[in-house]
Task: structure prediction
Amino acid sequence: MKKDMYSWNPIEELKKSYEQWQKLYSQGGCDPNWSDGQNMNLVRNHIIFRKREIEKCCEPEEYPAEYFFEIPPEVPSDYMAKAEEIRRDAKLLLNHHLQDEDYHYLRSRAYELTEKQKDSSGINYILASVLGLKTAIENDDLVSMRRVVNSARSYNLITECAKRVRELALPENVQMTLFSYLEQEDGGSLEEEDGQMIQSM
Result:
């Protein structure tokens, strides 16, 4: 190999790329915004590039075994490893949220808080995340489902948010919350709505 030609080793990088492609294919990744298929095709391009770089810097007798491996095929951009597992975990998480007392508490308090209190407590983010998970399941958006599930595994955000909200003082002159008003107007409750959501899954 021609020394000092690169600040990185194309042979080692080629080996890593093949390992990365195989891992994405079988186990999936954790990219919050891109599918496994999109990342696999990106890694495929890296493999092609690194083989060309090896040709520039190495003699044929120095080529590693990986150089002779077939270039991985292109895959559909929406490919996701363990798709059924992602769907199952997302539905289980949504059902857990919809039966969580802290989640229902946050919904009941959401319209009582000032905008400053909403920002400081993070309540809007929590409620939007649960709604986003529901929407992702309905649309079979596997990338979004995986992102929310992975986040939930790392942080108990709903419990932490509920604790912060319980420490907030209600704004003065709150007579009847918008939450209560909407509940009366709809002739039903948020608990009934969540129950219907659970049964439909």
In short: The radius of gyration is 25 Å. The chain has ten helices and no strands. The mean pLDDT is 86. Residues 10 and 25 are 22 Å apart (CA to CA).
